[in-house]
Amino acid sequence: MDDPDVPAILAKLPHACFANVPGSRGPRTLRIVRGVPGYTHIGPAPPADHFNAGLPVPPTPDQVEAMLVGSMFGWHVRGADPDVVRARRAAAAASGATAEAAGA
Description:
Layout: H1 6-11, E1 16-21, E2 28-33, E3 40-41, H2 48-53, H3 61-73, H4 82-95
Antiparallel strand pairs: 1-2, 2-3
Helix pairs in contact: 3-4
């Protein structure tokens, strides 16, 4: 995928989701909106899974990871596509490596 089709990628993602990221003062919960650069830190809060479970259609872990990548690095990058994230995780599982080691 040399020139990702951003509208096609965005169509695979929910309108919004929540993600946890490590921070120097403990984990932070973020709100990410599909197609929007950046994210909103929602402060000390329950884990992202708590919020995601309350959405009309809870996002998959692949979608959450893709949205975090897209919000930080642009919606045009390969990592913003949940199919790419899923394939990397599958390849890592098949090789016995972690998803992080596979570059997910």
